[in-house]
Amino acid sequence: MLIIRRVQPNDIFPVIALAFETLPERYNPSIFTQFYESCPEGFLVALTNETIIGFLIGIKTAPDTARILMLAVKDTYRKKGIGSSLLTHFIKEMKQQNVTRAELEVRTSNKRALRFYQSRGFLLQETLQRFYQNGENAYSMHKEL
Ligand SMILES: CC(C)(COP(=O)(O)OP(=O)(O)OC[C@H]1O[C@@H](n2cnc3c(N)ncnc32)[C@H](O)[C@@H]1OP(=O)(O)O)[C@@H](O)C(=O)NCCC(=O)NCCS
How far apart are CA 44 and CA 88, in angstroms? Predict the structure, then answer.
């Protein structure tokens, strides 16, 4: 059974491991704790059999705006609706906080994520040059909630 819930302190280490496994960007492990402390309502995990198989980290950047910073699902669990469930829960949490707009960036090469967000109502805004550590460009995207 799939469970989506807010992150808890014991989840942080497995989330760091999953981020390392699934995302190309290398993050300082301490930022995961910082996100948990600053915006626990935007840090969600997906579990099956008590194992973390996906997570979403978002923060509020203004009273009415949220930014999705990371979204990842373990590769063997993809295409089962887990990413969509994380996104839906995040949007619900944010609406409860009076957030009306969600923003994010995605690598221009990450066609799967681009399609994922577009088919869930995110609009492509602009290209951000050399946005990532390796010099790759990003698309900025947004959705009115
Ligand atoms: C992007 C990502 C989070 C999507 O997670 P996911 O769990 O596979 O997402 P979903 O299963 O909800 O949807 C993925 C696709 O599978 C399809 N799908 C969902 N349930 C399905 C099912 N039961 N059977 C077949 N296909 C299904 C969806 O229609 C969707 O297709 P679309 O994107 O063309 O609309 C995942 O691919 C990932 O972790 N990628 C690596 C990290 C990354 O790129 N993150 C985003 C940038 S930070």
Answer: 11
What separation in Å is there between the alpha carbon of 71 and the centre of ligand 1?
Answer: 10
Q: Tell me how far apart the alpha carbons of residues 124 and 143 are, in angstroms, rounded to a whole number.
A: 9
N-terminal to C-terminal alpha carbon distance within the chain: 28
Number of the ligand 1 atom closest to the C-alpha atom of 72: 39
Fold of 2-144: Aminopeptidase (3.40.630)
Q: What is the mean pLDDT of the chain?
A: 97
Nearest to 35 by CA among 74, 92, 90, 99: 90
116 alpha carbon to ligand 1 midpoint, in Å? 6
For the stretch 14-56, pLDDT in tens is 999 999 999 999 999 999 999 999 999 999 999 999 999 999 9
Question: pTM to 2 decimals?
Answer: 0.96
Q: Is 70 in the pocket of ligand 1 (CB under 6 A)?
A: yes
Taking the domains of the chain in order of start, what are their residue ranges? Answer: 2-144
Three-state DSSP state, 24: coil
Amino acid symbol at 116? F
Burial class (CB in 10 A: 0-12, 13-18, 19+), 28: exposed
